[in-house]
Design brief:
Layout (H helix, E strand, L loop, with lengths): L8 H14 L5 E10 L11 E2 L1 E14 L4 E6 L4 E6 L10 H15 L7 E7 L9 H16 L8 H16 L6 H8 L4 E6 L5 E5 L5 E6 L7 H19 L14 H6 L6 H25 L3 H17 L6 H12 L3 E7 L6 E6 L4 H16 L4 E5 L6 E4 L1
Bound molecules: alpha-D-galactopyranose.
Length: about 400
């Protein structure tokens, strides 16, 4: 599937960079956007519900197919070259970003798709390691690039393309993420949030009302704990399911448990596991309530649900951090802010706020005023509209 779209100045620059580095003209630009999750955190790997939007920051893979099996890559931001062969994959411990492309190529070939080599120039403006899914953006843009270079654009699309990109991250890169980030990067839509049922992979576009503007606060705080704690939370959820099965034998994931059921069988769970489960079960309910509130244009209610989500992530799931709490507090204190919460895995990275259009500057001012005093870190604030998902520009 290829969408024709205007070539913006960023793409024009990348085309001339490609010519400069590879000596000839590229044929396509594959684009994978980053994302911000409005609500539904740590629910995707519990078969639950999420409500992310794709943002207007993306990774672009500018390419030209080669007649052989060589993939030559130049990364503009890293100012680094890489190369691999499609018939022999070896993880590169020094050039970690290449592993994303290799992983994607490996998964596509495992799916029976015959790929061809290509020259690619990669450039992105999704802040890295900030919880805005720059990895998923790179995977999804790379997958689109490999498919278009091999003239197999329609061989893998939609949820199946997202699953392939997730598999590359899980099995090749070695990060045990859920499906949300790749899914929204593939299937996002302008001015819409995407409600995703992470069990069935059914999805539904929910308009972001024109009275709502999305503001992102980047704590710029390190996320060093994120990987180990993420895996620990996953296994605590699995423990919760295993223990609850004694009373609820039909459940296979926390998605199947309601709040009244959890309360009724609370005695089966150690206190810590109970709190982890309470976050997931209540968060799933908040996603459904948020979709209803967005449809009813009740943005104050959306704001309250976002605040409740943050409190639950902070107190029950314990994936917030002093920096994230300070960011959420600063954003929420600004007039015109409906609500704010940490977004993504947590431990650092970004918070997201929903605000009245026109209140973005007040939120940024509040953040720059109070956040550095608490953390000694200079943050960044971005506004973003919901954007389209992955696409390919034919040059
Ligand atoms: C990371 C993962 C996602 C999801 C979130 C938490 O972004 O990649 O799959 O689990 O954390 O909601």
């Amino acid at each position: 599937m290829q969408n024709q779209e205007q070539i913006d100045s960023r793409t024009e620059t990348l085309i001339s960079e490609f010519k400069h580095y590879f000596g000839n003209a590229p044929t396509h630009v594959a684009i994978g956007p980053g994302r911000v999750n409005l609500i539904g955190e740590h629910t995707d790997y519990n078969d639950g519900f999420v409500l992310p939007v794709a943002i207007k920051r993306d990774v672009r893979v500018v390419l030209r197919a080669r007649p052989d099996k060589t993939v030559r890559i130049y990364s503009l931001e890293y100012d680094a070259w890489g190369e691999f062969q499609l018939d022999s994959f070896q993880r590169d411990p020094n050039l970690l970003w290449i592993n994303y492309l290799m992983g994607v190529a490996w998964v596509l070939q495992e799916a029976g798709i015959e790929l061809t080599g290509m020259d690619v120039l990669i450039s992105g403006n999704v802040p890295r390691a900030s919880g805005l899914s720059s990895s998923a953006a790179l995977e999804v843009a790379s997958a689109k690039a490999f498919l278009v270079a091999a003239r197999q654009d329609d061989a893998l699309t939609g949820p199946m393309l997202a699953k392939a990109a997730q598999r590359a991250e899980n099995e090749f890169v070695g990060v045990n993420c859920g499906i949300m980030d790749q899914f929204i990067s593939v299937l996002g839509a302008e001015d819409h949030a995407l409600f995703i049922d992470c069990r069935s992979l059914h999805y539904d576009l929910t308009p972001v009302p024109v009275e709502a503007s999305i503001v992102i606060g980047n704590t710029k705080a390190s996320r060093s704990l994120a990987g180990s704690a993420y895996n620990e939370r996953r296994s605590q959820c699995e423990q919760g399911v295993a223990l609850l099965k004694a009373a609820l034998p039909e459940i296979t994931a926390l998605r199947d448990v309601s709040s009244p059921q959890l309360e009724a069988h609370r005695g089966l769970l150690p206190p810590l596991i109970y709190r982890r489960c309470r976050h997931v079960v209540s968060e799933n309910e908040r996603v459904l309530q948020t979709v209803a509130a967005l449809k009813a244009n009740d943005l104050n209610q959306v704001g309250r649900l976002m605040a409740a989500s943050h409190a639950s992530l902070r107190d029950d799931y314990e994936v917030s951090s002093p920096a994230l709490d300070a960011m959420v507090e600063a954003m929420s204190s600004a007039s015109g802010c409906y609500g704010a919460r940490l977004t993504g895995a947590g431990f650092g990275g970004c918070a997201v706020a929903l605000a009245q259009p026109g209140a973005e500057q007040a939120i940024a001012d509040a953040v720059f005023e109070s956040y550095p005093k608490v953390t000694n870190i200079w943050p960044e604030v971005y506004t973003s509209q919901a954007s389209d998902g992955a696409r390919v520009i034919v040059l």
